[in-house]
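## tool: complex_structure
## caller: assistant
## args:
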Amino acid sequence: MNRRLASVLLYSTLVIGALLSLLPILWMLSASFMATGEASSYPPHVLPDHPTLEHYRALFTRLNLGRSLLNSVIVTVTVTTVSLFVNSMAGYAFAKLRFRGRDRLFRLLAAGLVIPVQVSMLPLFLLLKQMGLINTYWGVIIPGLASIFGIFLIRQYTLAFPDELLDAARMDGAGEFRIYWSLVLPVIAPVLATLSIWTFLSTWNDFMWPLIVLSDQDHYTLPVALANLVGEHVQDTELMMAGSVLTVLPVLVVFLFLQRYYVQGVMAGSVKG
Amino acid sequence: MPSIARGVARSERNPAAWLFLAPALILIAVFFLLPVIAALMLSVTDFDIYALRDPANARLVWLENYARLLRSPLFWQALRNTLYFAVVGGPLSIAASLGAALLLNGRTVRLRGLFRTIYFTPFVTTLVAVAIVWRYLYHPRYGLLNYALGWIGVAPIDWLGDPRWAMPAIIIMAVWKNFGYNMLIFIAGLQAIPTELYEAAEMDGAGSLSRFRHVTWPMLGPTMLFAGVITMIGYFQIFAEPYVMTQGGPLRATTTVVLLMYEEGFRWWRMGYAASIAFVLFVIILLATLVQFRLQRGEER
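## result:
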């Protein structure tokens, strides 16, 4: 008896939690298909009376958000692929190559993790201005190309790689880059997957730095374009919801397809500390 | 013997290692560590829009920016708002995460994977986009939230327009967005607790509450510290939520330290002053992290 009651309580709590988690996202999706003004009616409509694609059409024609979508893709794909190489090379070197001052250097780098990124933003802006990179893709991309967190993650995972295999490959005359490329990378593929999903999501969702560096609409990434749009179109609820769907959908799709790697990575990272 | 000599030689100088490290180290040094040091120097100058045109216009003012900061009511308000968000929102987030993790940790729960994915979904969404969605959910007349509250007889609340409610509204949204991440970390922590401990407690006749108090809670200590520190550091840096939802209002009730730094530095181009704000934030985060470590150690004793 008691057990049955407990399980009813458990599952109703779980279902309510799931509804609360999904409701804002589902309402966004539903409102994006409503006719203009329908989302601002009382009592609220849950589903559109006559679903329409007009807001999505407006986003791509009148408001040129297709350009922002393209910008976001360019920036995110570049950062994700390049940083994967940069971070994995460094993480591998810290884990498996012996050189003087290695551990001291790594500790120094790890200490940098406590510095909030905002501290670097003002001088970084001035530096990129000197280099002529303000309001360019590179201005957004460059600061994301290497990350202390990424190096840290790769190093922790690669520490377990057996040294004997590396030495055997060296005896056979394999070059250091060859060893990294065809021996190490395939073995650490799971952590590479975790890191690239992490980088993809955080670069796509990043707001503050692109907002600072980008000053004209042709370069805006989606979050910046969206924040700009809400200033002018705050009354157009349905249009703003369509813009939000356009921004969120790519990351949701990536997450849902690859969530196995991502969720496991987050959980493994935490246990190892 | 020769192999040892070779090992030493390799540990002394290893050009290959430096080639592997060079791209990352150069990027981090030039685009992160140098700017951090430069920020310290910037914070003792009056670097402003004239200096932006010609750096020669910047003068050394030593600690004047910091003195001005401490005299500025707006800075203190931003600090209070940020502390409010971190001190109330942080523990609420952690509590929600722990609650969800405990629910999902039961061995008999069906569809665990599905629930876990659903709860984690808000975390991966784009903050700017969902902040806009919540702006409409909080609408005093047409918002779903007030409509739902109306069912249980609560009068409409002007969530984002009332200075008393704006920060709680942002906290609710942040808890919704973030709890899934710490939930995963707690699930991992719970799974690492040996089942023998629970069995032994059960043999001693401990009920489920007492098992939580004497087994789960102490064993979860390190996980709690990790989650607490990560959450607090993130919450002190809150920026996009007030930028998108309230622009720091109403009556500056949601102006946070980073939002203030952004406005001073990148809207009014008072970059020297803004740099001093950034450094004060850094020091506060550092102190708060130390306090958390100290608290944790106190609890272990």
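## assistant note: DSSP finds 13 helices and no strands in chain A. The radius of gyration of chain A is 24 Å. Handing back to user.
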